[in-house]
Amino acid sequence: MTAAERKPVALRGRAIAKRFGSTRALSGVDFELAGGEIVGLMGANGAGKSTLVNILVGATRADAGELSLDGNPYRPSTPGEAARAGVVAIHQATDRAGAPGLTVAETLLIDRFANGRSGFFLSPASIRRQAAAIAEASGFALPLDRDFADVGPAERQLIAIARALASQARVLILDEPTASLSTAESERLFAILEGLAARGLAILYISHRTQDLRRLASRVLVLRGGRAAAAFARPIDFSAALEAMIGRPLAGAHIAAREVAGEAALEISALRLRRDGPSLDLAVRAGEVVAITGPLGAGKSRLLLTLFGALPIVAGDIRLDGRPWRPRNPADAIAAGVHMAGEDRRRTSLAPADWPGGTLSAAIALPHLRRWFPSGFLRAGVERAHAVGAIRRLGIRASGPDARLDTLSGGNQQKVVLARWQAVEPRLMLLDEPFQGVDVGARADIAAAVRAQSGVATLIATSDPEEALEVADRIVFLDDRGLRPFSAPTADAGLAASGVSS
Amino acid sequence: MSAAPNVSSEPVAASGGARRVGGFLRRGSVFLLLALLVVVFAAAEPAFLGVANFMSVLQAVSVVAILAVGVTISMAVGGFDLSVGAVAASSVMAASYAMVVWRFDAIETVALALAFGLVVGLANATLIVVVGVPDLLATLAMNFLLTGLQLIPTAGRSIATGLILPSGASANGAFDPAFLAIGRSRAFDVAPIPVLLMLAIGALAFVLTERTRIGRLLFAVGGNEIAARLAGARTERLKTLAYALSATLASLGGVIVAARVGRGDVSSGASLLLDAVAASLIGFAVLAARRPNVFGAVVGAIFVGVLLNGLTMLNVPYYTQDFVKGAVLVGALGLTYGLGRSTT
After folding, report:
1. pLDDT tens, A381-392?
2. Where are the domains of chain A?
3. In a designed cystine with A406, which of A57, A209, A353, B272 is the match (CB 3.0 to 4.6 A)?
4. Which tens digit of pLDDT belongs to each residue from A290-323?
């Protein structure tokens, strides 16, 4: 590999700033990344991590500030340009590392096919030979003849890294790379990353998982609210790093906790989400807001979808108000007073703006059509009246009940999704990542509206412990070993929330 | 879709007035073109404007319009029914066979043809919803299957009184006059029955899709199926309903064709599918809806009918018709999507 012989790379940023509309995503961030080191990047949702990465790989242009690579000005305007300069990001969604229908060997050569270096005619033998050379140079054992569709997330991650190395990458950016990996797979990845750093690559490692960072990072940079809030060198004080990330001391951080008395509205006992998964027990009282936090892929969404009838119950027992609860589908759940707002609102909740149902009022009405329009005929007045109420109650900023959803900001769209499920009061409210892509102001409004529902048992899934602290009366932590109480508000609990097990 | 980032290279200098004019042109493009065509054709050939000619245009497009309504409903659930042409054609054959061979009367024949359409629709839905075949493939396969199936009972012959069956016997039943009236009679000596059927079905389907709970749910499935299911919509049932409606409407189209022609012609459905698809897609441009809509589909069918009728009156050769239809479709879609992007 030529990268190893070259002088170690240096990527520097000075006063990088970026705003989207009225939101400052980054306001003057300085950083430095040198060849041979692995730098951890921490930050809550909305802290500016993605924006920074997008700027580094040319997907977004900074409004102000300077980037330099090896001392030369570096202003990539496309990811391709950044890749030619040697800066590559490996995305969390590893299905983007290749395409089903191609073999792993062909996937490794996609970049060569695309830039024309492969020649026009391809023989299976030459593809295999070139791919084997790439795999060998990266030092990974890859199943070259298998279809990309059949390889797991760990292999896909390695394929993405091998592709980056084959195109002479010198700066690698990894976003939550262990999110969908097992412990053994993570350990293998760590060893590989350390090897790459030893060969002179610079690695920016984005993660919430302090155990990953403790293992790998020589330094940690913490972003908060678009600024570099703090930097830590080894030995890294992770309590301080987490405090810098959430912007207040860990002790006493759980200001939202309330003591809720009364009967359990939801009881889960010995529930399994997968055949080989841990057995889960949990009770949520009416009026109580419980947040489930924990690493990505631990099954938070799966638990919510199971309670909502969108996934089958593998094993175990669920009770709703003391009665057995086995929903067959979401329609069942909604009829029984179980509501759920899915994660990623554009995928799971909203219709295209051009279509019927693409307005604010229609988006709120969708699950309630049968109840609101028993005759079967829609009456715009009824929909609008509900929408006007929601706009006032949640402080939705929109031109009115007929506003198209694509004219609303992310936070206001999320308020519409919440309004949909609050329009008729449920018994059990399930919210999956309700603060995704939501600015701080809207986040507070949403948290307040959730907490104001005194008769409703609420279960929230969030991978961000800070959000959990802000909205929940009680927090539980879910990972592949099961559910445990999150005993706020000590520093250890803060660490536990980020995936460190003591 | 529309939420994609708007990277317009156009200068932002367009004034509000100009933008309003642009929006008006875009929403009204199909109507403006229609008006223009009427003026040009009327100037060249005064007979074009007569009520009789107007009714003959509507009569000519009625079957295509009814099929286009069905295709539009299938598009509302995010699908695409490509079997409508073959459903219409084979229901022409089924209706003719029922009367000529089995001596069914008008009511029995219509019931049989519609039931046939319903069964095909349910078969389509089964393939798509239960088996999981992609909708374009499932309905295209059904199109092939029916195109072949309709030839088998008569060994490829067209059906009329005196038909020689494969067994050698001759079938001497006849088309029921009451059945023929569906295609040939006029209400109040002015409006042909097929035109009234087209308007009635257009109106009912419009109300169903745009003004009822069911319609909203159909579009919810087509707009975002995951979101629709998580909002409690029974997406399988809604898709089944859409394909059942689509195929049943297509078989009604077949009944009208059979009643007008008065015989079971093996080639009767040849251009119906593409004409219906074209009308549905032109419907996207009507009022700049940029989505399937029943009103647009009917207007689209009428638009194509006016164009072809006028060109025929001007003695433009018949073999240019398909080219003209294609050009209209390309133009309408280009206008809707192209102009749409710069203003939103």
Report:
1. 999 999 999 999
2. 2-246, 250-337+426-502, 355-423
3. A353
4. 999 887 678 899 999 999 999 999 999 999 999 9
Q: Do A331 and B234 touch (CB under 8 A)?
A: yes
The answer, as to whether pTM is greater than 0.90, is no
> In chain A, what residues touch B212 (CB-CB under 8 Å)?
373, 376-378
CATH homologous superfamily of domain A2-246? Answer: P-loop containing nucleotide triphosphate hydrolases (3.40.50.300)
Of residues B1, B223, B234, nearest to A357 (C-beta): B223
Q: Does A421 touch chain B (CB under 8 A)?
A: no
Nearest CA in chain B to A364: B231
Question: CATH topology of A2-246 equal to that of A250-337+426-502?
Answer: yes
Structural tokens at position A455: 């008769």
Nearest to A378 among B216, B222, B234 (CB): B216
Q: What CATH class does B33-343 carry? A: mainly alpha
pLDDT over 90 at A95, yes or no: no
Note the pLDDT tens digit of each residue in B121-136.
999 999 999 999 999 9
Low-confidence ranges of chain B (pLDDT < 70): 1-19, 339-344
How much is the pLDDT for A421?
97
Please state which CATH number belongs to domain A250-337+426-502: 3.40.50.300
